[in-house]
Amino acid sequence: MPDRSILIISGTNRPGSNALRIAKLLESSYRKAGIACEIFLLESLPPETFHPSSYATKPQAVKEIQQRVLDACGLHVVVPEYNGSFPGVLKYFIDMLKFPESFEHKPVAFVGEAAGLWGGLRAVEQLQMIFGYRNAHPYPPRVFIPGVHGKLDASGQLTDADLARRLDEQCVGFAKFAEAIKTHG
User: Fold this and answer.
1) Ranges of the chain whose pLDDT falls below 50
2) DSSP string, 115-153
3) Could you say which of 96, 116, 120, 165 would form a disulfide bridge with 81 (CB–CB 3.0 to 4.6 Å)?
4) Which pLDDT belongs to residue 118?
5) pLDDT for position 123
6) What is the rounded CA–CA span in Å between residue 172 and residue 32?
7) CB atoms within 10 A of CB 183
8) What is the DSSP string of 33-94?
9) pTM
10) Rounded Cα gap, residues 89 and 137, in angstroms
């Protein structure tokens, strides 16, 4: 398995989001499989990140976040669908990261979640275009969670055993994918 951590990105800055709940489930899946991982919360982006001068001169906190992305052996993005797309804060996060090295040949896995029927499909497909433009390596098995509110209990656990199995399989498969890219990439 990878000798570096997989960085799980909770793709919104909404406190207590379903994306964060799913990210924590992924963290549990990785840990259960003995795979190093950590979660990055977009809600923890420091306020100075959003100052217009951040485009030209990155604040120290952004440089530290940048390093976490560069050091990760892969990115596992949990993306909610907002208004037929992904959250603007996720795009801003991507825009703040160094071009092209942040995602150049970086393995990326996606989980989409939404209240609606398609489970974040549109949001994931739009993100895949951006990561493709940035020369990332997308992991083909994506997981979509439609009707997310009915799939999580009050404690944040999945109520759908098949979905839990698919997330576990995605985590193990993605770790192998990331390792293969590192070895042969």
Assistant:
1) none
2) SSTTTTHHHHHHHHHHHHHTT-EE-S--EEETTGGGTB-
3) 120
4) 87
5) 96
6) 10
7) 7
8) TT--EEEEEGGG--GGGGSGGGGTS--HHHHHHHHHHHH-SEEEEEEE-BTTB--HHHHHHH
9) 0.95
10) 22
